[in-house]
């Protein structure tokens, strides 16, 4: 499975070189074909590392300089969409692989979402809102709610193995989100709402307020701003010690179990249907069909002899 190759490459870069990709998307997983013993083998290649960072550049207390442009919009984690000011973690990238897989299932398989596919994709993946307090783009609450549930966001018709796989993935990410203090995130990373302006407060009344104040020498001095109140929120790195997405292990092993044909510790082997249930591109001709000039895309896909999952 091509996405498994991409997860392996991502894991290798992180564990061996301390580099985080930070832009996992369908267009950034290329398909490279090689001939081995007369047979064509397809290998997944994780490309476009333009937004990557070394681990030394991602301190726990460091906020992103540009708070709303890390990664490709559709595939960003639910947390990074809702709280664009939060630090970016390894788990955000790992979650993006899950969104890539969900996207491909929705696009190429008949599911319980197919009838209202366009609306579902627009709501969960494409929605964006401008936050009034600071102008930052934020994503939908629906993606967060989806990741908090231990059931997959769609039921696949005619493929019980894929259904079971999606259920196992859902159990992983719902366990991850159960370790996160969402309320604390809202308090820490959502700026205070914009205060309404009283229109009847004319210039005369505004200046009269200053006239009533007694001026002192201290009022002319530049003062050190008060120390902001600290909200006690456990860092993701602290709370996520129990999270299955704290590293690649759980998700990677789950993919390997479903594609390798090797028996697990119980002696059970995953068996897929003998005939494919994949269908034509269900996004074709809809408003959610991929296109090059996506306003929320971080970069254009590469074209260097291979082709991407998005083409």
From TrEMBL:
InterPro entries: Kinase-like_dom_sf, Pkinase_fungal, Tyr_kinase_AS. Residues 290-311 are annotated as: Disordered. Pfam families: Pkinase_fungal (PF17667). GO terms for molecular function: protein kinase activity. This is Fungal-type protein kinase domain-containing protein. Gene3D superfamilies: Transferase(Phosphotransferase) domain 1. It comes from Lentinus tigrinus ALCF2SS1-6. It comes from the Eukaryota. Residues 3-103 form the Fungal-type protein kinase domain. SUPFAM superfamilies: Protein kinase-like (PK-like).
């Amino acid at each position: 499975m091509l996405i498994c190759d991409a997860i392996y490459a991502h894991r290798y870069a992180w564990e061996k070189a301390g580099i985080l990709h930070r832009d996992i998307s369908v267009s950034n997983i290329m398909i490279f074909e090689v001939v081995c013993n007369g047979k064509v083998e397809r290998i997944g290649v994780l490309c476009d590392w333009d937004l990557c960072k070394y681990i030394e550049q991602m301190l726990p207390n460091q906020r992103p300089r540009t708070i709303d442009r890390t990664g490709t919009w559709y595939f960003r984690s639910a947390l990074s969409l809702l709280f664009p000011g939060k630090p970016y973690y390894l788990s955000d990238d790992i979650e993006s692989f899950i969104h890539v897989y969900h996207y491909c299932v929705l696009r190429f398989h008949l599911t319980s979402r197919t009838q209202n596919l366009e609306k579902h994709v627009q709501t969960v993946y494409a929605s964006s809102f401008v936050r009034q307090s600071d102008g930052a783009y934020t994503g939908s609450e629906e993606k967060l709610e989806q990741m908090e549930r231990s059931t997959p966001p769609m039921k696949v018709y005619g493929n019980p193995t894929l259904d079971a796989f999606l259920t196992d993935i859902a159990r992983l990410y719902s366990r991850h989100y159960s370790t996160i203090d969402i309320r604390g995130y809202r308090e820490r990373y959502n700026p205070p709402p914009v205060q309404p302006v009283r229109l009847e407060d004319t210039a005369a009344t505004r200046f009269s307020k200053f006239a009533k104040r007694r001026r002192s020498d201290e009022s002319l001095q530049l003062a050190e701003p008060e120390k902001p109140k600290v909200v006690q929120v456990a860092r993701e790195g602290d709370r996520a010690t129990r999270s299955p997405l704290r590293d690649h292990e759980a998700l990677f092993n789950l993919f390997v179990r479903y594609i390798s044909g090797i028996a697990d510790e119980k002696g059970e082997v995953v068996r897929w249907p003998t005939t494919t249930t994949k269908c034509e591109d269900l996004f074709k001709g809809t408003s959610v069909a991929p296109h090059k000039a996506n306003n929320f895309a971080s970069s254009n896909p590469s074209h260097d002899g291979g082709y991407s999952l998005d083409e």
